[in-house]
């Protein structure tokens, strides 16, 4: 079995890591409605602000969001480029498996034809 511990992380790896957490997925869902301040994003969560900020850092490091500071207010915005790359990877995997399942279905129909009524 290959050892992946020393494999460098790719942008796709960091996106899936970011999306693996339900808090971060909820933040992305909120940002899909438009930009929001850190306070607005943190409001639904029962956690200390420093812990929540760590979630935002993971999202920003993965390229799923950007943030800008204006005075004392930090506003976050979704960046869909890396999310689109993850969606493309998932679509590719789905196509592979749909093709395989289609071939299995054809094979099974060939060896066990359905009876006609």
Tell me what the structure shows.
This protein has 117 residues and is mainly alpha-helical. The protein has one domain (11-111): Arc Repressor Mutant, subunit A. 59% of the residues lie in helices and 12% in strands. It has helices spanning 11-19, 22-31, 38-42, 49-61, 80-111; strands at 36-37, 65-70, 73-78. The protein has a three-stranded antiparallel sheet with strand order 1-3-2. A hairpin with a 2-residue loop joins strand 2 and strand 3 (73-78). Helix 2 crosses helix 4. The longest helix has 32 residues, at 80-111. The protein is elongated, with a radius of gyration of 21 Å. The chain starts with 10 loop residues before the first helix and ends in a 6-residue tail after the last helix. The model has no long low-confidence stretch (mean pLDDT 86).
């Amino acid at each position: 079995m290959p050892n992946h511990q020393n494999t460098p992380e790719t942008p796709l790896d960091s996106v899936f890591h970011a999306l693996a957490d339900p808090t971060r997925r909820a933040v992305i869902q909120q940002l899909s409605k438009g930009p929001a301040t850190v306070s607005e994003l943190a409001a639904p969560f029962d956690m200390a602000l420093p812990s929540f900020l760590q979630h935002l850092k993971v999202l920003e490091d993965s390229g799923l969001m950007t943030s800008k500071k204006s005075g004392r207010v930090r506003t976050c915005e979704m960046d869909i480029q890396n999310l689109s790359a993850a969606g493309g990877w998932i679509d590719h995997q789905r196509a592979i498996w749909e093709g395989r399942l289609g071939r299995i279905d054809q094979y099974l129909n060939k060896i066990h034809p359905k009876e006609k009524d």
